[in-house]
Amino acid sequence: MAHAAPAPGAPTTGLPDIFSARTHMIARWAVPIGLGLVYGYWAAANRRDAGPITGWNLLFGFLTALVFILAYLGVREIAKRLHRGAHALVWAAFTGIAFGFLYSQTGYSVLRSAMMSVVVGGAVLVTLFYRYYTHERTA
Prior knowledge:
By secondary structure, the chain is mostly helical.
């Protein structure tokens, strides 16, 4: 059985690619935008703490979403050029910082937010390093 050539930008795992190049291109932009909108909404909801939705709250949510999307796109471009350890570290730092920012919007102290950020980032680092280490191409 012949396998189709991988679509441009598709992961090369040795498995057949069931999605078209168009689907990969749409997902390449839809994932960061979707995650950014959810993240912006979550940050705005944390900040207003069940209070009324105001124009400033909407602005904060959309600006947070925009910054998240741009940071995600930047990390994605940088990380794909790195080896497994640095790749995992960049994504872990991004995740830890993003989580820490959301946690800080709940009103807890900066120290507690930083501690939780380090815990989440550390868990992501261990998980991603293991994944990249066990799935890295050796040839």
